[in-house]
Amino acid sequence: MTTSPPARLRVVVWNENVHERSRPEVARIYPEGLHRCIAAALTEAGLADVSTATLDEPEHGLAAERLDATDVLVWWGHAAHDRVNDAVVDRVQRRVLEGMGFVALHSAHESKPFRRLLGTPCTLRWREDGAAERVWVVQPGHPLAEGVGDGFWIDQEEMYGEPFAIPEPDELVFISWFAGGEVFRSGCCWRRGGGRIVYFRPGHETFATYRQPEVRRVVANAVRYAAPRTTPLVDRGSEWVAPAVEARRERG
Amino acid sequence: MTTSPPARLRVVVWNENVHERSRPEVARIYPEGLHRCIAAALTEAGLADVSTATLDEPEHGLAAERLDATDVLVWWGHAAHDRVNDAVVDRVQRRVLEGMGFVALHSAHESKPFRRLLGTPCTLRWREDGAAERVWVVQPGHPLAEGVGDGFWIDQEEMYGEPFAIPEPDELVFISWFAGGEVFRSGCCWRRGGGRIVYFRPGHETFATYRQPEVRRVVANAVRYAAPRTTPLVDRGSEWVAPAVEARRERG
Amino acid sequence: MTTSPPARLRVVVWNENVHERSRPEVARIYPEGLHRCIAAALTEAGLADVSTATLDEPEHGLAAERLDATDVLVWWGHAAHDRVNDAVVDRVQRRVLEGMGFVALHSAHESKPFRRLLGTPCTLRWREDGAAERVWVVQPGHPLAEGVGDGFWIDQEEMYGEPFAIPEPDELVFISWFAGGEVFRSGCCWRRGGGRIVYFRPGHETFATYRQPEVRRVVANAVRYAAPRTTPLVDRGSEWVAPAVEARRERG
Amino acid sequence: MTTSPPARLRVVVWNENVHERSRPEVARIYPEGLHRCIAAALTEAGLADVSTATLDEPEHGLAAERLDATDVLVWWGHAAHDRVNDAVVDRVQRRVLEGMGFVALHSAHESKPFRRLLGTPCTLRWREDGAAERVWVVQPGHPLAEGVGDGFWIDQEEMYGEPFAIPEPDELVFISWFAGGEVFRSGCCWRRGGGRIVYFRPGHETFATYRQPEVRRVVANAVRYAAPRTTPLVDRGSEWVAPAVEARRERG
Description:
8 helices, Rossmann fold
């Protein structure tokens, strides 16, 4: 009996892996691909079972058997949201409701699974100006913020500005300040069914954001936080139940 | 300047209108159709602009121009969820995010627009036994509960039981007690974008539930509560913004 | 039957009225006192029954009969939180739970009634540097933000920074950006019992913030939003109930 | 780096210990005292560092040094709420905000620390009729509900009925059905500062409720769930910060 995450979380880092192969300036920063950079951050943080999947693999690397054996799915997408197959989106949604964690990074705010799970457009304002971002912790003591004090700077990032068209988060953990005058809810948590959803803002492909220790730490925190909390749920659909529970009790 | 609902709310009551035409026992109770019975309740409650729409009409009676001129949409569906066109569902979702209220009644818990907006399966347990239901007010002072004291009985209803697979409501207003031993979150409110979503449980087609004064009162309360609170939003999609707001300010 | 605010909201603006009389630089900006400046903003916005109360009046101007006839109480305090009598705090708390709105402005974050109602210290970081503040709307379509577009600048204000030690707001409407690099949850709403609580950040006594049209608008929005939604509740204490509701029903 | 609860949670079970000594029918059921019965349940569940404290001890057994070394405080009180010293209540509140978990059982709904932390009266309806209670799980997959399936019966309990005057829970996990026709939100969770607060309804002193395996399991679940999630917070009070974070950054 425990409510701790399983000792050996099975984590899959999904990446569309498009920019890295089409834009030299991205390939220069992430020659191994964003997915492998992020996966390495998780491994360094002590997570022992981390693998990757990408858009071009069969079923985008997310076949049913693999997803069924995944505890937390990390998602990075941007240019190819529309190329993600709806059957895979259905599957991700189902798995989150059963208890799988889902960590959406940066431009995954408009990814199909994220929008599907939240029911809103998840749109925002943006400017790719490479100015400074300050990530502030607004809920000290939240596991997502462990190890990053009261916040941290990212020297160069894309700006994301409010309004961010999401349902009110169950827990708001980070708010970003941008040098250009904008603010953004950068660390948001929701529960849906048995699963936890985390959105963490930083990580534009043209900056080395995922090489920064604080960012790596928060992504690892997010994975641990989003770990299934109990035995997985099974959605049995709506269900006819008879006789009444009270009648069953009386019969013993 | 006001935050009150518009003087003349434009309300559309949508009904799949299937049972009433195929099952004599339903036709006997609701010969005019559930939609007209519900619409009459709203008119009696002082709402002056109430109309109806049904599945069989072109575009299910929910063409873009009509929805754009609707402040609150009430939804009753059961047997024909799958026959609702996805383009209409898209449109309902968009309008709710812009500010239109959406009131889902009874078996609309599994309707496409409700599930789309919430992102979860919205499944439950059920038993059509016609036993008694007690609807309890858990948030006295909430507009949804106005005029019904601490709750009311419904002599015969279908049982709906927990777990109800919804996101945690922003406001939980009613909980039902069933004679068979079950409980259910019967009055739930969520905000999504500019719009408000209400779920109200009672209203099985084989019982005269929508003829009961307290139920009629709550449906009217729900419509008023779900009324748009301000001028409608427009989703402009994600948007590139430059120069930075700080730069614009400095230039005057 | 209506869920709209009463036609003629009875509003009391409370101010400790200390700085205005002890510090010439404050008296110069608010010679009439902050309470009268704020009350005038409300009257201009169309609220017809606005009066003021201050610390030095008997019972701080908040005798039971007066509070019982108040729909929304606006609170500004800073230097004299400790001088507010606990019996008056009890009364304000009781009235909020019954349905009275409570709008806490700026340094009222540490006022006794605000802390009592929220149960947390409501502490924050601050710097009285008179630099620029940008107030951003994060929930477009929320009544609190009506009429201020996507936000507004305040040229000179005191900085308030996160973490702000509050319970997660039920609705977060504004986030502020400060020129010094900080952010703050500047517009927060909670429900407690029948009442609504709003916190709105701007309004340091050494700046002419409450003369700015957008700020005046938001304070008026907050008062209308916090208006009682239904007939007032009465807290009867915990209550013994017998016979059971089910038994009462069976008897008729 | 971990977000798991500390390996060896330090748990204190507090009990006013009044009924057990003054009413023979309670002494017969809990001869060892409710605190020792509950503590034994926790020990059986694998918690290794469980101790007890009672009203009559100096400082109610909750001296500052002891509370500072407590991870989760379980509270049972009923007849003697008023005899709890306010200085101890202050201390419990401070510790919860720093991260200590607080589990309020049954009639602790009106205890001073619970009301202080929530800011509402926490009143309810009640009837000590010893009829059956069915506890339903409404959030399957929540750690509080681990191991109890979709709910369980308690053959004899005191009835608690809605409305329960609490702030909307952050997570609602259990709803109770009572044979007399009432319902109640029986498992509620809130976050305040760094700490988690759990309310769990069952446990009237005249019934052997805390001897029932499912109830013992849920209390143990609650303690584990309420465990501090990260290093403790320190409330430094509101704090003057200069120079601005942006200026500090520029200077390196």
